Amino acid sequence: MTTETIEKHAVPEGFEDAFVTPDTYQKLYDESISDPEGFWGREGKRLDWIEPYTRVKDTNFTFGDVSIKWYEDGILNASVNCVDRHLEKRADQTAIIFEPDDPKEPAQHITYAQLSENVNRMANVLLSQGIMRGDRVVIYLPMIPEAAYAMLACARIGAIHSIVFAGFSPDALANRINDCGAKVVITADTAPRGGRKTALKSNTDAALLHTSDRVRCLVVKHTGDQTTWVEGRDVDVKAQMKAASPECPPRPMNAEDPLFILYTSGSTGKPKGVVHSTGGYLVYAAMTHQYTFDYKDGDIFWCTADVGWVTGHSYIIYGPLANGATTLMFEGVPTWPDAGRMWEVCDKHKVTQFYTAPTAIRALMAKGPEFVEKHDLSTLRILGTVGEPINPEAWNWYNNHVGKGRCPIVDTWWQTETGGHLITPLPGATETKPGSATVPFFGVKPVVLDPESAKVQEGNPAEGVLCIGDSWPGQMRTVWGDHQRFMETYFQQYPGYYFTGDGCRRDEDGYYWITGRVDDVINVSGHRMGTAEVESALVAHDKVAEAAVVGYPHPVKGQGIYAYVTLMNGVEPTEELRKELETWVRSEIGPIAKPDLIQWTPGMPKTRSGKIMRRILRKIAENDYGSLGDTSTLAEPEVVDDLIENRMNRG
Ligand code: WTA
């Protein structure tokens, strides 16, 4: 489908009172660009400051001197903004609805008063373990309320949390603990998901074999399952919380003090520790949550992401709680006990905003509409998507079957690095086009550059790489421990701009269409992954000589993982070995990195200088081998014939 044939959807009726309307959008956007100091100076006041800021913006995108500071002389505490300041009016309002994996278990409604008590107790537990301001705390927890308590407890005492997705392997966990030099890791005994359990504590035990032996292990006894226990190292968090004081004074923090580190994949090397700030990040998370989802008092907000990803940070925890919202945390999966679970939860808790990933929509779409039709979804007002481009077919299904044509769909484009939405419709203001993230959020200056000449593409339509022309408060500040890498990754290739790594098209109406990554990052079921990480896991296996990994179009996952593998001399390719490699990658990185297709190859297509021509591998993986382009520079052109003949994707 070309963009010309895609119809525009008007803002549905009933959004006249939205925070942002078509008129106010243009007015505010223009102001945010012409007077960022004034605009963000005013927006910053949505937080409570212990010492107000006098300086708003001090940012520099020049390679070599990159420095990003917002509200730099302001003093605040993030947990006070997410908890304490709501107590006067909202002590008895539900802050978090916890919906457990098993629908037969009762849901929990945690009020702001209870949230406060738990965060304070957990903060005291961390203090009693010797955690101080600036120390790193790794959180390896499932989607349970203790994850929220742990994040906010860190914020309360000025410790920097780094959440590691509970689906990651012991190795991946150990690497992150070591990279940020964490003093403790907070985990749980076991984590039920979709009726099956992950042994988080035993994963953590395995990880801690590869870290300093001073790292403490705080264990949330969530299921009560038996685990090993290392005296002197392991701590029973719940028992300690019970004994701790329910009051812990918040630590005054500078706006630029790091709030958290979150590891994410890049095109090269090991995952980067993305550092977010306390002040600017929180302003941006709160503001985007309010405007993009038109969040109003009394709404029940549900973001289905995991807290292990940035979406969970900004739109389950920090944004909603800074706004005094009711946020839903779901421990389970969309397809268990059946494909109606999401809609059952929406119905049960009267959800008003529902925010999920296109991969989930496609998976549920494949099960048929009867699972949706069974449930009353009349409370839904706004639907959102994030993580990857949404195909118009999935968009239309979401709109017709879930939103019944009366809920605006916000297709939010952003990244771990950006802290919050950068390009997104606003429900009361923006006409939508299925598949387009539409227009920039306030203060965001998207720029389309020609990938080769780096020339700015003025006028519409335009196509090229997507960069951002100036800073916004939610922008990452640095890569943990490696500012040089931060500058090289985002500011070197296109001088003066933040380079997103995404390609895009801007249509005749000025709407943005994200076309996907232009680097070696792939997006599998909304999970971001570096092909280099999967390659290095494969070559770590002693039967593998060489590996190259690319993405290919996958009907449900968006992209699947396609691995080309050359075995060591004398090793026979067998089905057992294929299974062995799949299991190997699962254990090296985690289940989300398991290759979907493995093709054995006697060699890789290389230039005479020995560089693998990934362009060719991508084309073959896409089953588009008729257009390989010029292969004359290859050292051994006949490798290509073998690759085509034995290709795995013939769909
Ligand atoms: C992709 C997730 C198209 C994009 C918040 C980006 C999207 C990467 C969208 C970041 C969208 C995210 N439309 N593509 N609405 N949202 N992406 O860091 O390629 O896990 O660069 O952050 O996901 O993934 P990350």
Task: Walk me through this protein's architecture.
By secondary structure, this protein is an alpha/beta fold. It is 30% helix and 22% strand. It is built from 20 helices and 30 strands. An 8-stranded mixed beta sheet has the order 12-11-8-6-7-14-15-23, with helices on both faces. Helix 13 (358-366) packs across helix 15. The protein is globular, with a radius of gyration of 24 Å. The model has no long low-confidence stretch (mean pLDDT 96). The structure holds 5'-O-[(S)-ethoxy(hydroxy)phosphoryl]adenosine. Residues 264, 309-311, 386-389, 411-416, 437, 500-502, 514, 516-517, 523, 528 line the site of 5'-O-[(S)-ethoxy(hydroxy)phosphoryl]adenosine (WTA). 5'-O-[(S)-ethoxy(hydroxy)phosphoryl]adenosine (WTA) binds at residues 264, 309-311, 386-389, 411-416, 437, 500-502, 514, 516-517, 523, 528.
List the helices and strands and how they pair.
Elements: H1 22-34, H2 36-43, E1 57-60, E2 67-70, E3 75-76, H3 78-82, H4 87-90, E4 94-99, E5 108-111, H5 112-128, E6 136-140, H6 145-157, E7 160-163, H7 170-180, E8 184-188, E9 191-193, E10 196-198, H8 200-208, E11 216-220, E12 234-236, H9 237-243, E13 253-254, E14 258-264, E15 272-277, H10 279-292, E16 300-303, H11 310-322, E17 326-330, H12 341-349, E18 353-356, H13 358-366, H14 370-373, E19 382-386, H15 392-402, E20 409-412, E21 446-449, E22 462-468, E23 478-479, H16 483-490, E24 498-506, E25 512-517, E26 521-524, E27 527-530, H17 531-539, E28 544-554, E29 558-567, H18 575-588, E30 597-600, H19 614-621, H20 638-645
Parallel strand pairs: 4-17, 6-7, 6-8, 7-14, 8-11, 11-12, 16-17, 16-18, 18-19, 19-20, 29-30
Antiparallel strand pairs: 1-2, 3-13, 4-5, 9-10, 14-15, 15-23, 21-22, 22-24, 24-25, 26-27, 28-29
The structure holds 5'-O-[(S)-ethoxy(hydroxy)phosphoryl]adenosine.
